[in-house]
Every structure is written in structure tokens, then in C-alpha cells.
Specification:
Elements: E1 3-7, H1 20-27, E2 31-33, H2 42-52, E3 55-60, H3 80-97, E4 101-104, H4 115-136, E5 139-142, H5 158-168, E6 173-178, H6 179-184, H7 189-195, E7 200-205, H8 221-230, E8 236-239, H9 247-250, H10 253-256
Helix pairs in contact: 3-4, 4-5
């Protein structure tokens, strides 16, 4: 059975953030993730993890001024120093909170930069992050975000990320395989899983369209999740969906698909 984790940025959002850890534990989860640990007192997060016994499996690198429209800083040459400072900040958070996977949202295409210039700074920044995290014992993930939900994002498909990782050539750079984003880009999710299994470091799921729980859209999770098991995936499958009508009700998809927490 896949090892499911709850994404606390999306799930249990009916309550304040610090209360979501205990709610996830009560629901049966033993692993969680969320986007940014920098928005909170990390000692408070550490206390919640200790109280509940939950394992934090992944967070994102700093992504600039999110509220101001930033979606990452790896695409902008003038922000290279900020990106590298963010890598150090992410490593520090990982050490404090005990997680060993970190995702990079690379950011939006920068107006005025050619595709070649953008590619050059992306390769440089991701290669740097992969090396620095490798020394810290942290796996680096790179996630595509579909162009419909986030116009202008620099990496939209798994194919684009995989090509970038091949160019970087560092063993510590992996694809964050978000099934929802891949389906929005009309990618063959089964082919990605089978053909690039060794480059997949983390999996996130939501149905498509709608980004709600499995069973609400068109993705065949009754085939895909057993296929993830059959391939021998040893990482986490995170539930990163918008629950309808609420989180606890949404979790009924698990027994309906033959799973339990």
C-alpha cells in the first residue's frame, strides 16, 4: 500500500494551522507535509510534531514574496544570491524539523530574458541546490506547475523537468511527480511512472479537473495507485488536494479504493 502523507496546506484547512497536526493524527496519518515552514515559528511546529508523533516528509524552499506574486526565485539572475540564501534557510529548517526532502518551485519566466538565458540560470541554480542539499543529506525535488493554473511558470510539465534534470546531471535532483499538474498538461502519468521511475523522488495526488480528492475527476487512481506499488515506490504519496465538502468527508475515497490509513 502506498505510504500516504497529508498536505497540511490543503487538508484540514477548516482549522488554524497549528491544530492541523493533531487533526491529521486523529484521522490516521503518520506523515505530513506543507508548503513553507518559514511562515511559522518552527519551534511551535517542532512541538506539534513531537506531541503527535507525526513525521514531516517535505517542505518547499523559500519562494520569494509569495503574497506579492513570486512563485520562486530560480529563474532570475539578479536574485541568485537570494536563491542561495534560500537554500541555506531551507537546509536549516530541514535540520530543525527533521525532514529529508525539499521541493523547489523555480518561479515565473522573467520578462526580458530569453529562453536560453532563463535555462542557463535555472541549470546553475538547481545544480547548486542539488549539491548543497546532497552535502546536508537532503533530497532536492523540482516540481512542474501546469500553465493553466499558473500562467508564466517556467516549468510546466514533467517532461520539461526531466529534460532539465538530465542537463544538470546531478544525482541529487529528482522530479516531484504531481499527478494533478501532469494531467492538466495532458501527460501520460503511467508512462512517466514507468519510464522515469528512478528520477521520481516524491509523489503528490489530486484528481483532475477540480483538484479535489480521487474519485471526483477523470484520473484512474484505481489503476495508478496499485501501479505505484507494483513499481516498488518507497517514498511518500501526498494528498495535495482541495477537499470537498470537508477534509474528513473527503477521506472516504481511501476505503472506497481499498485503502486505509
Amino acid at each position: 500500500m502506498p505510504h500516504f502523507a497529508a498536505n497540511l496546506t490543503f487538508l484540514f484547512a477548516e482549522m488554524p494551522f497549528m491544530e492541523r497536526f493533531a487533526a491529521a493524527k486523529r484521522a490516521g496519518f503518520d506523515a505530513v507535509e506543507f508548503m513553507f515552514p518559514y511562515d511559522y515559528n518552527q519551534d511551535d511546529i517542532k512541538e506539534q510534531l513531537s506531541k503527535t508523533g507525526l513525521h514531516l516528509v517535505l517542505c518547499n524552499l523559500p519562494a520569494g514574496n509569495w503574497a506579492g506574486g513570486d512563485r520562486g526565485t530560480a529563474t532570475i539572475p539578479e536574485r541568485k544570491k537570494e536563491f542561495r540564501e534560500g537554500v541555506a534557510k531551507g537546509i536549516e529548517a530541514a535540520r530543525t524539523l527533521g525532514f529529508a526532502r525539499m521541493n523547489c518551485l523555480v518561479g515565473l519566466m522573467h520578462e526580458g530574458l530569453s529562453a536560453g538565458e532563463t535555462r542557463k540560470i535555472l541549470v546553475e541554480n538547481i545544480r547548486y541546490a542539488a549539491g548543497a542539499m546532497n552535502e546536508a543529506g537532503i533530497r532536492l525535488m523540482v516540481e512542474p506547475v501546469n500553465r493553466l493554473d499558473m500562467p508564466g511558470f517556467a516549468l510546466n510539465s514533467c517532461a520539461q523537468v526531466l529534460k532539465l534534470l538530465e542537463e544538470i546531471g546531478h544525482p541529487n535532483a529528482y522530479l516531484q511527480f504531481d499527478v494533478y499538474h501532469a494531467r492538466r498538461e495532458n501527460e501520460d502519468v503511467t508512462a512517466i511512472l514507468r519510464d522515469h521511475f528512478d528520477r521520481i523522488g516524491h509523489i503528490q495526488i489530486a484528481d483532475c479537473p477540480g483538484r479535489h480528492q480521487p474519485g471526483t475527476g477523470e484520473t484512474d487512481f484505481k489503476f495508478l495507485l496499485p501501479e505505484i506499488d507494483r513499481m516498488g515506490f518507497r517514498g511518500f504519496v501526498s494528498l495535495e488536494y482541495i477537499p470537498v465538502p470537508d477534509t474528513l468527508s473527503s477521506l472516504q475515497w481511501l476505503p472506497a479504493h481499498g485503502y486505509r490509513l
